[in-house]
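Hi U.,

Before I forget, here's the chain from the pilot set. I'm dumping it here mostly so it's searchable later in email.
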Amino acid sequence: MAAAFCDPDGLGSEMEVEKKMDAEEIPTPIPDVEEVPASPAPKPVDCGNAEPSQSHKVDQMVIRNAVIKIFCTRKRPMWYYPFQNDYQRNSTSSGFIINASGTRYIMCNGHGIAHATSIRVRKNGDDTKYLATVAHVTHEGDLALLVVKKKKFWKDTTPLNFHNILPELQAEVIVMGYPTGGDSLSITKGVVSRIGVQKYTHSKASLPTIQTDAAINSGNSGGPAIMNNQVIGVAFQGKRSSQNIGYVIPYCVVHCFLSSVLEHGKFCGFGQIGIAVQTLENESFRDFLKIGERTGVRVKKTNPLADSSKKLKPDDVMLEIDGKRIGNDATVELRQSERVSWWWVFSMKRPGSMAKIKIFREGKEDMVEVELYPERKNDGLVPRHLHDEKPTYFVHGGLVLTRLSWPLLSSTYGSSWWQSMPPVLKHKAYKPYRDKENEQVVVMTQILDNPVNINYKVCQTLERVQKINGVDVLNVEHALKLILSTEGKFLRIDFEHMGSIVLNQKLAFEANPKIKEEHRMFSLWSDNLKDVLLLKCKEDGTDKFSASPVAATRTDSTDIDIQNPLTPLSNGFLQRPQAGPVVELDESKNES
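Structure:
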């Protein structure tokens, strides 16, 4: 299972130095939605919220019957062998019924339904499982909404109400769910022991959490945390190396998700500011920066592609954010006698909104406004997660090229990959920001044996691709375009450690069908790259790509629906017509 961890030095920096991941997810498809334009402050949303009162009595059986057991069958990709899938697995988790502006959903955790091929749900005390589908999901916030079409499922159920409040420390909390050790509903009781910002195991995003000593075990994920007969949050992870520590997603995070979904029909993300900072707890450092009695944090680095790089620069001192004074330890006051990481402030704001920051620069105070962008740990230089996504890859001449990601590192070097991976890759893996738009780290995972690549040996398990035919590689798609645009007889690929590989381009194309068959590949490249060659064919007026793998996913002409037929060759590729309309493939019939 994956693990959660915190910024060890409390700097609030996006350059995490995770020495050990010691918190554990509790069990183990819709990708993160795209950004939407900034909106005014969200209107109050009817999510079944109500303040507790003496007259508000809820029958305990009604609450219990709203807690659902979720059965998930999933099939994850094999990141090291991107042309194959992992074997099928089953898992269970928990959820509960809510009412969001008149529509009933089952709220659960994102990690409970990631890479799902089917989802079934069962009510408390019932013996029937019902098919469910994912309506909305945020893997950053580890939350999802399920819908069930069968009306019978909703019979005799009452949605749970949310308690729109952040509980006080030592407040009593009840956690319900279906953990391992039994099949029926489990109910545990504890108190709120801490409130702060933690790194979510599922996404590696830093967001608000509630810590409790109520037992939260594998299978509890997605179950409600109840206080005064109302939901204050969603159970989602525990801590492997400690006892009596479990974490709950608080209502402020849940409301951020629900209000965005109900207002826009999609989740537009949590706010990210793109600033790495350094604490100023050392007196000499504060004197050097001449900040006097002020408190704050030093700007260490900004995201070069974000608005923060235009408004702030290194050695600026951030004094306040949205009117909240920042301490020398990178914390802000949450309420009396409670301080949390300054990340709390901007993470709960909408992408596209502005954060007002008071800074101290060159002896003067100033006020700047920084536009926030969506927090997406699956879309960085090296993605922290790729839930509900498939690998981006292609195979040419036996060389398997893909993008570097944390799932690939875990698949290659094991669960403690950060201890055994090459230092040069570690630097890339922890680099917080891209330098260029759409930049990726392209690596070769392996060389599949074939006479065309005989006697080439890799120096390390993952070899970073630097250049193709003398051109710096930006991303995987760019790498494929460079290979398909090769002029002349030979293709040259330069790597960071092993040196270079030179292939006879014609022989490499001819070897592809045999390599595909021998290694039982469902495709020589990922679905999101299939249009690259077609675009090249449209741009080229000759038969330069006559041996190109247009039909890499199928080698028989009966599986391809075309307006102007391509001629199948004996090597399994398709001959591009010399004249006539541009060829288009019917994707509905050209499935992998």
